């Protein structure tokens, strides 16, 4: 079996349990003073890389957790290492500089391409999307830039020789795809149940290396191609009504002019 | 750390440096200072990066794994085995135990954070972790011979629960009047323990017991000695399991010792020094109890406020009240006697905010309240603590 050097990109996002609020100028979601955590899909990715290592003795040479984000993203990377990643790379972004704020998927994919080349990775396991922007593009763009195969929305990942067999959930059943390494795999919700960082894991993570870089260290064009016009909250849900019977439903629908 | 506990127990106006700095008021005189955390002292609300991660991880564990079972364990008066196993897997049963012995190698601050996080969801699970870490593991780590440490710490950190056995039917707050006796064999190779212990936390799950027995009753408390007893030693029985008001899932048992032969290697520390160890361990253990009670208060509040804010029969005038309580809470951290009072008050009020839903056994509100009662009782009752504080004040201020 091909020896694996896995790259897992990670994003620090608003915690999934927090109800996001739009700022006064309607340009973004408020993030200051809000609980931040690892993007849940990235947790799945870290967990899957660690499980690949546990399932295939000696096959996984390296698990590198990567993040481009504010200084605090170091905490998120530390969590990834507590879960089992071997080392971390943080590209620290200066939030005060507009061009370093909210990197676009293409920019992130280009950053990742450089990391892959420099670190000699042959597999990228990343979340199918981040729960803040929901772009769902980075993995695919990265595969395109690298000229690698890709298997998206994985519900099951198996490495066989120099191939990755990925099962994905599609309408009405499962679809199994086979992709040659090197490859990009994006992870979906039911892939696994991420572990909690154990106490010994947390202690070990303190000793694992974390490299810090700046955007300027990368030969990447980060011109903004997207413009956010407006961010609005979804309209408040209108309360529903209850009807007693089918007849009641029909007459109510008629009343509303729906039929 | 001990002085900070004392400081918090004394009314603000009475704090005086001379009192605070006097050695040995709350800790045994020969206890060396220990680091509370892995970094230099920081304000009590400031957690280190490690403690933050631990808090996050333990909090999630508590919500995802413990919460779904909390009500059932309480009704069954039984700790779920799989939860105990997972506590070990998470490294929560050897927080301070050195990595070489299979522990997590963290500081006391980490224990406190873990206890608090667990108590927010289930004080029963919290006390299991508390007693095991702050009393049993610490006893081995501080007083155990290298042999004992090598033999027991890896077990205690990775799979075997331990108990701390001091109280007896006739000696609770007056623990040093204990009547369990240990007689040394003529060869000196072993001791025979005879007597009875009561109120032993975790006893139903435990396999390792630290037992205090007197080897020389004529010398009074100076004969008290600590031994390590294993489940299965002939003559040792875990007898009755108490039926309790609160923390029902945590086992509390009566233990009987009928000529239990313990090898001399299982002597913990030195002969006749058991009383010192007990005082010192309980002084530290009480901080854990304070953390448990603080967590309980937070949990009861969160439970009630979640209900209040989402209840259909919303009563606007209630909205402000929880906040008032919440703001009073953080300042109560780690004050053993006070923490239990706050826990009782908050969890009691929480029931009232929730009305009928607080009174029924469907949610957890009534359980928090029942669980809070124990805080004023175990590891030194609040009444005794007040008495101790009064004694210290008398010593300081009474003119000869």
TrEMBL record, chain A:
Protein family (similarity comment): Belongs to the ETF beta-subunit/FixA family.
Function: The electron transfer flavoprotein serves as a specific electron acceptor for several dehydrogenases, including five acyl-CoA dehydrogenases, glutaryl-CoA and sarcosine dehydrogenase. It transfers the electrons to the main mitochondrial respiratory chain via ETF-ubiquinone oxidoreductase (ETF dehydrogenase).
Record note on quaternary structure: Heterodimer of an alpha and a beta subunit.
Free-text cofactor note: Binds 1 AMP per subunit.
Cofactors demanded by this protein: AMP; FAD
InterPro entries reported for this sequence: ET-Flavoprotein_bsu_CS, ETF_a/b_N, ETF_b, ETF_beta_N, Rossmann-like_a/b/a_fold
Domain Electron transfer flavoprotein alpha/beta-subunit N-terminal: 26-222
Location (main, coarse): mitochondrion
Pfam families: ETF (PF01012)
Coiled coil: none
Molecular-function GO term, any one: electron transfer activity
Protein localization: Mitochondrion matrix
A biological process term (GO) from this entry: fatty acid beta-oxidation using acyl-CoA dehydrogenase
Gene3D superfamilies: HUPs
Listed name of the protein: Probable electron transfer flavoprotein subunit beta
Top-level taxon of the source organism: Eukaryota
Keyword set, alphabetical order: Electron transport, Mitochondrion, Transport
A cellular-component GO term for this protein: mitochondrial matrix
UniProtKB/TrEMBL annotation, chain B:
InterPro entries reported for this sequence: Acyl-CoA_DH_CS (IPR006089), Acyl-CoA_Oxase/DH_mid-dom (IPR006091), Acyl-CoA_Oxase/DH_mid-dom_sf (IPR046373), AcylCo_DH-like_C (IPR036250), AcylCo_DH/oxidase_C (IPR009075), AcylCoA_DH/ox_N (IPR013786), AcylCoA_DH/ox_N_sf (IPR037069), AcylCoA_DH/oxidase_NM_dom_sf (IPR009100)
Residues annotated as domain Acyl-CoA dehydrogenase/oxidase N-terminal: 48-159
Catalysed reactions, as listed in the record: 2-methylbutanoyl-CoA + oxidized [electron-transfer flavoprotein] + H(+) = (2E)-2-methylbut-2-enoyl-CoA + reduced [electron-transfer flavoprotein]
GO cellular-component term (any): mitochondrion
Acyl-CoA dehydrogenase/oxidase C-terminal domain boundaries: 338-391
EC number: 1.3.8.5
Gene Ontology molecular function, alphabetical: flavin adenine dinucleotide binding; short-chain 2-methyl fatty acyl-CoA dehydrogenase activity
Keyword list, A-Z: FAD, Fatty acid metabolism, Flavoprotein, Lipid metabolism, Oxidoreductase
Quaternary context: Homotetramer.
Protein name: short-chain 2-methylacyl-CoA dehydrogenase
């Amino acid at each position: 079996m091909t020896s694996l050097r896995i790259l897992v990109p990670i994003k620090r996002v608003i915690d999934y349990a927090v109800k996001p609020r739009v700022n006064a100028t309607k340009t973004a979601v408020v993030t200051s003073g809000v609980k931040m955590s690892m993007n849940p899909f990235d947790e799945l990715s870290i967990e899957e890389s660690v499980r690949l290592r546990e399932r295939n003795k000696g096959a996984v040479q390296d698990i590198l957790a990567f993040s481009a984000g504010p200084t605090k993203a170091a905490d998120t990377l530390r969590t990834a290492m507590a879960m089992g990643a071997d080392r971390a790379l943080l590209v620290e972004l200066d939030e005060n500089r507009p061009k370093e704020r909210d990197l676009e998927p293409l920019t992130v994919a280009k950053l990742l391409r450089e990391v892959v080349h420099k670190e000699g990775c042959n597999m990228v396991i990343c979340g199918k999307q981040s729960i803040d922007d929901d772009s769902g593009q980075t993995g695919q763009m990265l595969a395109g830039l690298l000229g690698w195969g890709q298997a998206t929305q994985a519900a099951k990942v198996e490495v066989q020789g120099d191939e990755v067999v990925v099962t994905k959930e599609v309408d009405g059943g499962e679809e199994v795809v086979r992709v040659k390494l090197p490859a990009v795999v994006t992870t979906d919700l039911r892939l696994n149940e991420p572990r909690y960082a154990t106490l010994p894991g947390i202690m070990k993570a303190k000793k694992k290396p974390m490299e810090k870089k700046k955007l300027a260290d990368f030969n990447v064009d980060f011109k903004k191609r997207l413009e956010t016009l407006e961010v609005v909250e979804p309209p408040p849900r209108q309360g529903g009504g209850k009807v007693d019977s089918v007849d009641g439903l029909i007459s109510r629908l008629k009343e509303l002019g729906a039929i | 750390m001990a002085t900070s506990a004392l400081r918090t127990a004394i009314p603000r106006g009475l704090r005086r440096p001379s009192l605070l700095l006097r050695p040995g008021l709350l800790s045994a005189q020969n206890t060396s200072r220990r680091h509370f955390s892995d970094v230099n002292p920081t304000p009590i609300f400031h957690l280190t990066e490690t403690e933050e991660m631990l808090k996050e991880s333990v909090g999630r564990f508590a919500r995802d794994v413990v919460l779904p079972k909390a009500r059932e364990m309480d009704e069954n008066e039984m700790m779920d085995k799989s939860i105990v196993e997972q506590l070990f897997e998470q490294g929560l049963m050897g927080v301070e135990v050195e990595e070489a012995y299979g522990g997590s190698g963290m500081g006391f601050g980490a224990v406190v954070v873990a206890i608090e996080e667990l108590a927010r969801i289930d004080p029963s699970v919290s006390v299991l972790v508390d007693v095991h870490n702050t009393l049993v593991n610490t006893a081995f780590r501080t007083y155990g011979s290298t042999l004992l440490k090598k033999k027991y710490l890896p077990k205690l950190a990775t799979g075997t629960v331990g108990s701390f056995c001091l109280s007896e039917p006739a000696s609770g707050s007056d623990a040093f009047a204990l009547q369990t006796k240990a007689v040394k064999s003529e060869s000196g190779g072993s001791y025979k323990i005879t007597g009875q212990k009561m109120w032993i936390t975790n006893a139903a799950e435990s396999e390792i017991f630290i037992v205090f027995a007197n080897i020389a009753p004529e010398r009074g408390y100076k004969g008290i000695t600590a031994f390590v007893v294993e489940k299965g030693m002939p003559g040792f029985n875990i007898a009755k399991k108490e039926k309790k008001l609160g923390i029902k899932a945590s086992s509390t048992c009566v233990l009987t010792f009928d000529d239990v032969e313990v090898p001399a290697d299982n002597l913990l520390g030195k002969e006749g020094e058991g009383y010192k160890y007990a005082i010192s361990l309980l002084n530290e253990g009480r901080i854990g109890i304070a953390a448990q009670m603080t967590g309980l208060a937070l949990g009861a509040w969160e439970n009630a406020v979640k209900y209040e804010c989402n209840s259909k029969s919303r009563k606007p005038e209630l909205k402000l009240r929880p906040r008032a309580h919440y703001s009073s809470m953080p300042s109560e951290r780690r004050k053993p006697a006070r923490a239990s009072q706050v826990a009782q008050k908050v969890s009691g009020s929480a029931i009232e905010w929730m009305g009928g839903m607080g009174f029924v056994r469907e949610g957890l509100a009534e359980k928090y309240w029942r669980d809070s009662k124990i805080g004023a009782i175990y590891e030194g009752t609040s009444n005794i603590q007040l008495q101790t504080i009064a004694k210290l004040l008398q010593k300081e201020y009474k003119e000869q």
